[in-house]
Each structure stands twice: as C-alpha cells, then as structure tokens.
Amino acid sequence: MRDRAGNTLMIVAAALAPMLALVGGGVDMGRTYLAESRLQQACDSGVLAARKRVGSAVASDGMLPTDANSAGMRFFNLNFRSGAYGSRDRSFSMSLESDYAVSGVATVEMPTTIMRVFGQSHIALRVACEARLNFSNTDIMMVLDTTGSMNQTNSGDSAPKISILREVVKDFHKELDAAKAPGTRIRYGFVPYSTNVNVGGLLKREWLVDSWEYEGRKSIETSNTVTVPKYTWTYTHVSGSQAAMIQTTGPACPASTAQWNQSNVQTAPDGTQSGRTTVTGTSISCSYGDGNYVIDGTIYDNYVYDWTKTPAGSEQQSVYSWQYKSVKVDLSSLASDGGSISVPMAGNPQPLPDPLVANYKGCIEERDTYEITDFSNVDLSKALDLDIDLVPSADKKTQWRPMLHQISFVRAVKSNGTGQFHRTPIQYSGNYLKAEDFGLSACPSPARKLEEMTETEIASYVDGLKVEGSTYHDIGMIWGGRLLSPTGLFAAENADLDSAPTRRHLIFLTDGETAPLDLSYATYGIEPLSRRRWSPSSPLTLTQTVENRFSFACKEVRKRNITVWVIGFGTTMTSMLKNCAGDGHWFQADDADDLNAAFSAIARAMGDLRISK
C-alpha cells in the first residue's frame, strides 16, 4: 500500500493561504464597514450641527462662519473619536454652499490585520454629507416698531437700532430665499407701527367712510360788536398795464411775485390820504377743490396808479370767534391711499375763514369699538376694531376713517402746555394745540401686503422706513394679524397655494414698553376727547388699555394657526410680550449679535433641517 499522508499535508498547506485571505478579508472588511457607517453618521451630525448654527448674517465671502465650523467639528469628534476602530489619520472639513447648505467630507484610514500579510496594509475610507434648511410655502408678516427710540444705539453696538434691524432683515430674507426649493412660495409683508399704522394704500375705497367728525373748529358770530372806521377809495390809472392770467390748476399754490411800491403819500388835515403805487410782477390767488388748486391772478407790467383814501364815518361790525368742537367733514373726494381736502379753519375767525388743507397720508382711525373692562369677555359685535377678520360693509361702523392731523385740535390745550382737555365745545378766538404739532400724530411708513419680494425690493423697503412717534403695540398686532389672516380682508390672496398648506408666521419686534400719550392723535382719535376705547375716568390707565388690547389681539392672531414670534430689541421683555409669543417663541436681543441670533433661530424653526445627501 502507498502512504498518502504527505499528499494531504501538502493539500492543506496549499489551501491555507486562500483560507486565511478569505477569513482575514472578512474580518478586516467587517471592521471597515462598521467604521464607515460610523464615519457617515459623524459626518451627518457635523454638517447638521454646523447648518443649525449658521445664522442669517452669513459671511459675504461664502466661508463657513467660525462658530458654525466649531459646532460641526465638535459633533463630528463626539461621534467618531480619534482612533475609533483602530483608525488613523482622521479628517473632516466643511464648506458653505451658495444655497446656504453645509457640505462635508470625512476621511480616515483603517489599518488591516490579516490582509497585511497579503500586502494590503490599510483601507482608505471617504464619505460625503450635506445638510440644508428646506422651506415649504411660507407667509411671514413682520410687525416692526419704528418709534423714535429706534434711532438710539444699544450699548455695545456702533449703529442705531433701526440701522441694525435693516441689515438683519436683509440677511434673513437672503437666507430664506437661497434655501427655498423650486416651486416654493415665500411671501413677506410688513407693518411698521408707532402712534399709528399706514394701511390706507392697502384698502378698498369702499372700506373708508365718506364723512367723519374731527376735533376741529368753526368760525361763529358772537353777540359782541366793534366800532371800525369807514373809508371811500378812488383810483386813477397813470401808466403801465395789467391783465388777468390764464386760469390753471395744480397740486400746489405758487407764490406771488408782485411787488407794490408806494410813493408821495400825504395826509390832509381832515384825515384824507393820497399817494401813488407802482406794481410789477404777478399777483396769485388760489382756491382749493377736487384735490387740486384753482390758480388765478393778475399780471402787472410797471402798472402805476394814484389813489385817495377819504374818511366816511364809522360802522359796527360783528366780532367772530372760533368754536372748537367735533366738526363733520366731507371725505368723498379722497382716495384710499391719499388725497387732500380743504376746510375753512385757517387764519383768523371771520365770516369766511381761510382754507386749511388736510393731506391724507394713509394712516387711519380705527372702526367702532367700546371701552372694555373685562378682556376675558370681549363682545366682538361691538369691538369691531378687534375683529381682525371682519370685512367692512356699507355700515359706517365697520369702516375705517382717514387720519387728518392738520384739521384736528387738542381742545383746550395751548401750545405752551397750559390748559386742559375739554370734551364739550368751547369758544376761543386764539389757537389751541394742533394734532400735527410736536410729532403728536406720527404716521409711519406704508405697510405692505404679503408678496414675494426680491433682495432689492426688501432692501429698498427697509432702508426707507422712517422713525418717529410713540409706542402703541396694539395697533401693530391688530394690523399684522389682519394682513396675514387666511380668513379675513385678504382671504383670497392669502389662501393656500394649489391646495399645498402654507405656514404662517408673525414676527413682532419692539424696542420699548408701551408708551401712549394722551395728547397724541392716534388710531382712536385724541383719546381724552374722542373717548372711544378709553376716558380719563376709566378704571384702567391708557397704557393698561393698550396692553390689554394687544394681548387680546395676539390671542386672536394665534387662533388662526399663525405662529407668533416676539423680539425685544434693546429692551427687557415684559410678561405681556412673553405671554403673547409663548415659551420658545420670544427673544431678548440686547445688541446686534443677539438680534442676528434671534432671527436665525426663527429661520431654523420655520424650515426643516435635514440631510440632503
């Protein structure tokens, strides 16, 4: 018999190498697969953390901000520690894409054990990842405090608050616009507010009243008389010419250019005066009507005449005085977004006073309401101002009224601050404080309805915001809700797009506490005189009234599935503001960095942060 043991040994020896390669390769590949999976998870967590940290104010050079890069590196390191699975040469880098996505690349080398015998000393691993903030259809209404204090500068900042706000809003729009997916609609609206809101340009004309009562004045004849001298005049043309100018119309009354020069004036013992007058230039006279001035006048070409003024006894004339009271004014000629009217309230009281022109700039007086003392039981059938969805009807109570500060007087307070409010009519031949004096009737920049806006349009709008007036939070919230509501004045425009749901957000920013002024002519008239929602005898102060109405309006807005965000910029957040927004939806921004962080947090909450590759 032949011994086959040696053959078996040779066969086993020959098969051992392939078996070791197969088993060793499986061990090394299994460990490599685990490392690669973990490396991908670490890469994903890193870019997610970095994208979450990227704010609205991203670097203009396209570089990932340092704090975002640090956050991403920290999360990567936590999820794939140095030397994990025996790895070496770990690396991770991130970059900011043009659409504000954060992309990353992670690499590592995995040393082999068994496969080293066969010349494979390591396996190189490389994974890629990307995180982006995606937005669905979104409507954003920004209600911005543009009171006078926004011109002040916060501690630690180098620019006024309004300047910082402008830049933050631009960056906020830039981030959202870059991150939105094709076919997605993101619309922006604005309600600048202070003492009032400027919304007239957004309203239909039939939503405004055709007449309204203003705290004005009328000239009345008193029972007093005064003795005045009478004269007879004679005129004799000497030389030169005069001619009537052709009647024209225009938006303004031009100034006269005529110059009247007297010479040879003499007075006789009986009081008769005589002299010569030379006139050169154009004498202008204007009347106002239908939104324009009718311009008449006379053209004088070196016109010379002699005159005589002869005493003719005396006569009794009635004395006229102003009666300050509510005056009904015809507004039918005004458009919803502007226009002018003329009322006889200027100059001195006389049978026909001079015309006083009132220009409508778009700010309004609110529709009917009542003095509310129990805000847990508000009757919206009476408080029409707080019904943010009510569309005006033919009923005057449901309509808004143009704010006309030029023809409104603070009865009976004088310009030096003396006097007191007098609700009933009062007779006075002098002038009381006008509502347009001392900034008492600030009218902010026009509001804008929701619409898609380009970067240029956003910049043009926020750069044009003017800053003036006092802090009336309630009217800002009321109109922010009106313009954003899907079930109110603009329901057709605010409906979901092609049956796709729309997320709605209201961002309310203020730099101060409620600060109404009883002298102001605001959205409810001159409060101590008009007394539509408050009176000096009310159990609540005017400030408390404004704040309670703000809180009620905020609840009404949230009932419409609108997310409310509140930012206090350079001011301490009050419980009223915090309660309006709710936990997690309010921010106290003490400086520019805080304001950027607040808008960044809002942007993240509006979108869906996700891994895109």
Describe the structure.
With about 625 residues, the protein is an alpha+beta fold. It folds into three domains: about 5-135; about 140-200 and about 365-405 and about 440-610, 3-Layer(aba) Sandwich (Rossmann fold), CATH 3.40.50.410; about 215-320, no CATH class. The protein has helices at about 5-55, 65-80, 160-180, 455-465, 475-485, 525-530, 540-560, 575-580, 590-605, and strands at about 90-95, 100-110, 120-135, 140-145, 185-195, 210-245, 250, 260-265, 275-290, 290-330, 340-345, 355-360, 365, 400, 425-430, 450, 505-510, 520, 525, 565-570, 585-590, 610. The strands form six sheets. The protein has a six-stranded mixed β-sheet, sandwiched between helices. Strands 6, 7, 8, 9, 10 and 15 form a six-stranded antiparallel β-sheet that branches. The chain is elongated, with a radius of gyration of 38 Å. The relative contact order is 0.14.
